[in-house]
Amino acid sequence: MAARPHGCEQCGKAFAQASALAKHRRVHTGEKPYRCSVCAKAFALSSGLVLHKRTHTGERPHGCALCGKAFISSSHLALHLRSHTGERKYGCPACGKLFLQSSHLARHKAIHTGERRFKCQDCGKLFGRASHLATHRRVHTGERPFQCPQCEKAFTQKAGLVLHVRLHTGERPFQCNKCGKNFRSSAISAFEKHYLFLALHNMAHRR
């Protein structure tokens, strides 16, 4: 085994080269000397900046040989390939469900533990996912990022916009299996009102 004479004073991790130790120390110091000239986002490693720049340029040099989909990094391509091979090596110890990525497994585990580690700084409400917290924060900030292209009405969630757009298009994708009537939403309240109407209508005709 190669010698690793350069040890980190804070965590004890050792490296073969002093330059590698210097890069590692940024984990502890928070130093991010590599800054994007487009959006000013900063990175601890130059490799991180290189990958980030591709989000601006659109460069995706790592292509999937099976479907042609391209990615900004080889690691992203490796994750994608599992969708073709079906490999799911991250298993939940509680229920056995398998996942493509360790991050997906970590998110799933919160279902079993009930862990809600994402806290709203405004009201203290807790959430199991960062994305749920981000959506909730719009209650406080008033942000409505999903805007209708036809009337410019805006919504806090994409689902709200999807329902609204159907007012313009007339689309009613959900059908009643009793009479064939269509609805904009699959929400139970819409169907409850409809079934109540059918029940009252049938009762009136029986008299």
UniProtKB/TrEMBL annotation:
GO MF annotation, one: RNA polymerase II cis-regulatory region sequence-specific DNA binding
Cellular component, GO, one term: transcription regulator complex
Pfam family membership, one: zf-C2H2
Subcellular compartments: Nucleus
Swiss-Prot/TrEMBL keywords: DNA-binding, Metal-binding, Nucleus, Repeat, Transcription, Transcription regulation, Zinc, Zinc-finger
Domain C2H2-type: residue ranges: 6-33, 34-61, 62-89, 90-117, 118-145, 146-173
Family: Belongs to the krueppel C2H2-type zinc-finger protein family.
Annotated protein name in UniProt: C2H2-type domain-containing protein
Source organism of this protein record: Strigops habroptila
